[in-house]
C-alpha cells in the first residue's frame, strides 16, 4: 500500500540541506582579519570610536563563526537518538546571535551616553578614524554581498547578515562622525549617530529572535495558514474530517506536516494521499508529510 511515488513529494524525505559553508568561511576570514586591523588602529590612534567599532566587528566574527559551525553540525546525518538530525542547531545558533546583537545594541547605547556626557575625555584622531572606517565599510559591503543570497531561506544566515549590516551602519556612522568632528570638533555627533544605529538594530533583532523562538516552540511557520490548509484538504471528495493536524519546522525551510484523515472508504486512501501531498507540495511547499487514515474520528485531538 502507498507505493505510488512522485519526485515532487518524495523529496521531502531526502531533504538536502543547502550548504552555505563557502560564503560564510570567506566572510569569517574577511571580518576576522579586519577586526585585528581595526583594533590595532583604534589603539594606535587613541580613538574609542574605532575600538568600539572593532568590538562591534568582533560580534560579526563570533556570529559568523557560530553560523559556520552550526551548518557543519547540521549536516551530520540523523541517528537513532536524533531522528531529525541536527538541523535544529542552526536555530539555536540564530537565537544566540539575536541575544548577541541585543547585547551589542545595549553596549552602544551605554557607550554613547557615556561619551555624550564626557566628551572632553575622548581624544579622536579623525584621519585614522576616517580611513579605517572606509576600509571597514568596504569589508562589510563585500560580506553582505556574500551572505545575501541565503539570508531569506535561513535564520542562521539572516542573523549573520544582520550583524554585518548593523556593523556597516556603524562604519558609515564613524565616517560621518569623523568628517564632522574633523571640521567642527563637535564630538557629541559621534554619540548621536551611535544611538541611531542601536535603535535600528533592536527591532530587526527582535524579529529574528521571535522567528527563532517560533521554530524552537514548534509553532506554525510564518506565512503558513493552517486553517486554509485544513479546509483545502476537506474539499477533497471522500474526506469527511481532518483533525490532530500539526505543522511545524525543524529549521528554516524544512516544514513537517502530520494529521489524521477520516474517509469512509479506506481502500481509496492511496489516491487521497496523493491528492493531499499534491496540494501541500504545490501550494504550500510542504513535502515532509505523515498522514493517518481512519474510518471514524479517533478523538485523539481532544485527548491532548
**Uncertain stretches:** 1-18
Q: Largest sheet, if any?
A: 3 strands, mixed
Kindly report how far apart the N and C termini lie.
Answer: 29 Å
Assembly state: single chain
Query: SSE string, helix = H, strand = E?
Result: HHHHHHHHEEHEH
Q: Give me the count of strands.
A: 3
Give the DSSP E fraction (strand runs of 2 or more residues): 5-15%
Radius of gyration computed on alpha carbons: 25 Å
The percentage helix is 55-70%
Which structural class is indicated by helix and strand composition?
mainly alpha
**Discrete helix count:** 10
**Mean pLDDT over all positions:** 77
Strand order of the largest sheet: 1-2-3
SSE topology:
Elements lengths: L6 H4 L10 H25 L2 H27 L13 H30 L8 H23 L6 H30 L3 H29 L9 H9 L4 E13 L2 E10 L5 H16 L3 E7 L5 H4 L1
Parallel strand pairs: 2-3
Antiparallel strand pairs: 1-2
Helix pairs in contact: 2-3, 2-5, 3-4, 3-6, 4-6, 4-7, 5-6, 6-7
Please tell me about this protein's structure.
This protein is mostly helical. The protein has helices at 7-10, 21-45, 48-74, 88-117, 126-148, 155-184, 188-216, 226-234, 269-284, 300-303; strands spanning 239-251, 254-263, 288-294. It has a three-stranded mixed sheet. Strand 2, helix 9 (269-284) and strand 3 (288-294) form a beta-alpha-beta unit. Helix 3 (48-74) packs antiparallel against helix 4, helix 4 (88-117) packs parallel to helix 6 and helix 4 (88-117) runs antiparallel to helix 7. The longest helix is centred in the middle third of the chain and has 30 residues, at 88-117. The protein is elongated.
Amino acid at each position: 500500500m502507498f507505493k505510488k511515488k512522485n519526485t515532487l513529494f518524495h523529496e521531502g524525505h531526502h531533504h538536502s540541506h543547502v550548504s552555505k559553508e563557502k560564503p560564510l568561511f570567506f566572510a569569517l576570514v574577511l571580518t576576522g582579519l579586519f577586526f585585528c586591523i581595526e583594533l590595532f588602529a583604534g589603539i594606535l590612534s587613541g580613538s574609542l570610536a574605532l575600538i568600539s567599532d572593532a568590538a562591534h566587528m568582533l560580534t560579526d566574527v563570533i556570529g559568523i563563526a557560530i553560523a559556520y559551525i552550526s551548518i557543519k553540525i547540521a549536516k551530520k546525518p540523523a541517528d537513532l537518538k536524533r531522528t531529525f538530525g541536527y538541523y535544529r542547531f542552526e536555530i539555536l545558533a540564530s537565537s544566540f546571535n539575536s541575544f548577541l546583537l541585543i547585547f551589542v545594541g545595549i553596549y552602544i547605547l551605554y557607550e554613547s551616553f557615556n561619551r555624550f556626557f564626557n566628551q572632553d575625555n575622548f581624544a579622536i584622531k579623525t584621519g585614522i578614524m576616517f580611513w579605517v572606517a572606509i576600509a571597514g565599510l568596504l569589508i562589510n559591503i563585500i560580506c553582505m554581498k556574500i551572505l545575501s543570497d541565503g539570508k531569506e531561506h535561513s535564520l542562521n544566515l539572516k542573523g549573520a547578515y544582520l550583524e554585518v549590516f548593523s556593523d556597516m551602519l556603524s562604519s558609515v556612522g564613524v565616517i560621518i562622525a569623523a568628517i564632522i568632528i574633523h571640521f567642527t570638533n563637535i564630538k557629541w555627533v559621534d554619540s548621536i549617530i551611535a544611538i541611531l544605529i542601536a535603535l535600528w538594530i533592536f527591532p530587526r533583532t527582535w524579529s529574528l529572535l521571535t522567528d527563532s523562538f517560533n521554530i524552537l516552540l514548534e509553532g506554525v511557520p510564518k506565512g503558513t495558514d493552517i486553517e486554509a490548509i485544513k479546509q483545502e484538504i476537506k474539499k477533497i471528495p471522500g474526506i469527511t474530517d481532518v483533525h490532530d493536524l500539526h505543522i511545524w519546522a525543524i529549521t528554516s525551510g524544512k516544514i513537517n506536516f502530520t494529521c489524521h484523515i477520516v474517509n469512509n472508504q479506506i481502500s481509496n486512501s492511496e489516491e487521497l494521499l496523493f491528492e493531499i501531498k499534491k496540494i501541500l507540495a504545490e501550494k504550500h511547499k510542504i513535502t515532509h508529510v505523515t498522514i493517518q487514515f481512519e474510518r471514524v474520528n479517533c478523538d485523539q485531538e481532544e485527548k491532548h
